[in-house]
Amino acid sequence: MAHTPAWKRLASTSTTFTAKTAPSKAHLHKPIPDDLFPRGYVLGGVHCGVKKDPSVLDLAVLLSTSSRPTSAAASFTRNAIQAAPVTVSKDVLRQSSGRSRALVVNSGCANAPRFIALALALASSSSETLVMSTGVIGQPLPISKILTALHPHGGALARHLGTGFAAWEAAARAFTTTDTFPKLRARALPLGDGRTYRIAGIDKGAGMIHPDMVGPTRPPHATLLGCIATDAPVAPAALQSALDYAVQRSFNAISVDGDMSTNDTVVLFANGAGDLQGGREGIEVEAEAEIDEARDPGTFVRFRDGLTTFMQELAQLVVRDGEGATKFVTVSVEGARSYEDAHKIASKISTSALFKTALYGEDANWGRVLAAAGSVPLAAPLDPTRVSVSFIPTDGSPTLPLLVNGEPEQVDEVRAKEILSLEDLEVRVDLGLGSESAKYWTCDLSYEYVRINGDYRS
User: Which residue segments constitute the domains of the chain, with CATH numbers given?
Assistant: First the structure.
């Protein structure tokens, strides 16, 4: 008797609503002017043979060519089962005191078991090389194919390195697995006193997304990978501090399915190559001192906050591309006693399967929001008589209150369904206890998600 996949049995079950197809995400990827990309980096992407289809890119490299030392910072998965590339990269940053010039990324095989010796081979050519890997967990990595492509004389990557949009896009495509588009952004980074640098970033992820990452020198704090590069001069300690702050408010504030990967990694490079007179390429002026958190707190905060908003945009791309997702939802928790409390509650709501399936079914079941919020242990318990819940449409139409100070509203179900039918919407929870707030970005949970993950290895 032929086996019927679970997702087919589920999809054939009678329901009260029609299964929806995830909208196209093609509009989220578009060309970026070359002059927005940071100076002093070369990168590219090729097919080396990790993936079966020769037309699909599966290996990327980024290299800093700046004459100044390049600072590097990273955040890694808190998962106790950590893939070899995570272990290798943590060791590189620890031994180099936060200096790194290169990043090698492969997709198609996550290499999660104890293949540390193989991963080390990638880093053997330089003590300043970081490595990242994504794809199916538990299969051997074809290390010889990767090393052949990386060979500096005749390797495929050496022939495909560049500095502009085409090179960044190729690298972004080499990051992808079940992603439906390459995730790439770049922008100017003003830091005051007429100083403007550039920042660019690539990330990937669509499933197994619920990152919880911390820096490499701390006890471990999806599959999510991110690489960000700037030509601003930033000292290693300040770079790590800024990344820790930004990660908590960006990549640690997204969820597709609530599952944390063994490979989650975000790396950040700062090479100081943007110190150019009048913006003219190749005319160097006296090197500016590296931004230091203690010595120049004002500039540091501007850098940290600019990095945070940039990383939030990158992180949101992952949720927008969630496997099978039909909606992008902002969960805002306000009126908390602390940021940590607000963040915990927003995370719990965003990972609730009942809440996420109600989003897919466009069912205004606010009780699921309230139940998720109330299940989070806090320093002091919630007061149900102070909690309010609202749906906030993104089309400019009026907010729809569902619960006000613990009292249910007479909900217009037709209006509620109109809001829930939008691709973008916000669910706002006011705890009425304080002045702190946090946001989380999530998506709905659909039949398509089950199909993709039911057949992932095939």
Answer: 26-320 (3.60.70.12), 328-454 (3.10.20.340)
